[in-house]
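Re: folding output
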Amino acid sequence: MKKLNQESVFDTLMNHLMGETDGDKMLEECMSFDVKRTKKIPMRYRLIALGFVQGMNLEEVNDKLAQRGCEKLYARNFWEAGLIYAFLNGLSYPEWKKLQESCRDIRRRAGEQSQYFTESKITFRALREYVRDCSDEENGRLVTRHLTMLVERQIAGIRDGEEEFRRFLSENTGLFSQVREKARYYFCKYLCGYLEDKMAGYVSAVTSGFGTEDALAELMVFKNVTKLKKKKHTPEEAVELLQESTISSGEIFDAFNYFYFEYVSINWVEILLEYYSVGDILMLPARQKGELAEALRSYNHALSNLTDEEVISRQAEEMKKKEEELDAIYSLDGDNRGYQRNRSGENAVRDMIKGRVDIDRTTLICFLLFFTGEKGTEEGGMSRERLDEILTECGFPALREEDDFDFFVVQYLQSEEPKLYLMEEVTRYARNRENFYLYEMYKDAKSLEEEFCKVMGIGA
């Protein structure tokens, strides 16, 4: 596996954090033709600017974006819908800027249009309603409604110029979203399936009389689960109760974290200590002890004046204390399970469901793998083909083995023991003093709507 492409990761992160107004600024920087300034701009905006300079059509721009691993232009975003119209109709950059000003006014007047998840709590019924309303049914299966493609076709069908385009935006504000809606849809769809599997597992356990306690522990993602503990319910009553239950974003993230061996929130130093502590790390051979001590000093310069023995003794004691804390926090039968966990992950899950933050490609992939778990492809699990289909639907590039992270995902999907493969990869990165791809990735989430409202001076 190749080394991580840092520039690609930076571009992905910057694209994810850019809002509409930042996008305007990025294109303006590119169109200044100042080479030094342009080099600092994420690749996606440079390619869009190149489209204007070279007079590309929409297909050519999207092809350029896909070739460089960037997201294609997304029709259900006000800002990008304007770009799509511009490239479809051969508008120059100044002409697009003028159009953008009037589109921004429409966006500001439209405000928040979402009809889903209007309550502070998220119930399973509300989640399922969102998924069903955004899906069509084919042979008893829910499939995506392809609204993004529909909007793009409608924009392409505009024949009477910019005034018709503005009218289309004004009359269809409900079709647009502040986030990449298709990624949100797939996140919610597979989350819904994950929760339904938990329900089905409990019903099966109650019906058979085996494994009820374990199945009940799996229902911690539902906040009404305590009612099942206090009073006996029939399977039908239990399902009805859970369907009306509030879902716990914290427990979902906790389970996600646990699924990936907690490696999404543990840095390389802790993983390295775990790797060396197969036995007592104080009993390591001198060479390995020296390697470990050197790595720890590179991470914490306050240890630079200590001997190898002192460095390792201090870290061994800290690790022991942390393990005792984690035993209490992550104990499956503990009363305070997950009580001290980082609230960032919990808030990110809630905000992704509610459409407050964009779901970047890496985060979407990792959650889809988690939601489908270790199911076989015929049991609703995830295959490379299905994942490629989802990514393409979202406007993301399909998996490309020349990309480091994608190579890992392909190998993970094809592995007979995916969790073992993950553990080996994370450990390998730690030994190179690097954090793995998944390290606290959920912290990249940011409210683009909040930033937009600040700039425009309107209420969030």
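--- second protein (sequence, then structure) ---
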Amino acid sequence: MRILFNRRICSGHARCNEKGPDVYGLDEMGYCLPRSPIVPPELEEQARDGARNCPEGALTIVED
């Protein structure tokens, strides 16, 4: 599983981090900063939850 992140449309709601704290970090301004584009199997559910909760749709999950 991979995460595609569109920084241009992220508005900094931090819902991704709330739902997937081990997958999605936040920068110093509170905007999404994925910890890694590759998601290990044990964190896949957090990655999905965080992406689903992004109001702008800035996160896309790619199932490999």
